[in-house]
Design brief:
Low-confidence stretches: none
Strand content: under 5%
Structural class: mainly alpha
Helix content: 40-55%
Distance between the termini: 80 Å
Order of helices and strands: EEHHHH
Shape: elongated
């Protein structure tokens, strides 16, 4: 009646022991390259090559910087290095409708002034002077 919902969908399945399919693929590729190097190089050259190949493919298999695979991290850093860092906004003038501002004449502006008596101005200045003494 009820079906089970998978809980760990972001973790990869383990194929051989603690190894995932990607890790096994990287290690197998490194092993094949080391087998070819064993058959073609002398012992001292093979040891130097084995250290480099083992380090590269071992890190591709197991090292996860910022919890992402090393290959993805390297590709992201290459794309970051070659892509532009600053986005310059370019306006597309093809679809813009130019609307002119309406011209307002001075005659259209009506200004009404409220009449203020001299006594009203004196009262307001007394109130402001009294309030300014409290702030000093």
């Amino acid at each position: 009646m009820f079906s089970n919902v998978p809980q760990f969908i972001d973790t990869e399945d383990k194929i051989v022991g603690p190894l995932t399919a990607k890790q096994l693929g990287w290690l197998a590729t490194g092993g094949v390259l080391l087998l070819i190097a064993w058959n073609t190089l002398d012992l001292s050259s093979f040891i130097v090559t084995a250290i480099f190949v083992g380090g590269i493919f071992g890190s591709l298999a197991f090292y996860r910087p910022y919890n992402q695979p090393l290959l993805k991290f390297l590709l992201s850093s290459v794309f970051f290095a070659f892509n532009p860092k600053v986005y310059i906004w370019k306006r597309n003038y093809d679809n813009i409708k130019i609307v002119q501002k309406p011209v307002v004449k001075k005659e259209d502006i009506v200004s009404k002034r409220k009449p203020i008596s001299n006594q009203k101005i004196k009262d307001i200045s007394k109130i402001l002077d009294r309030n300014s003494e409290h702030w000093v």
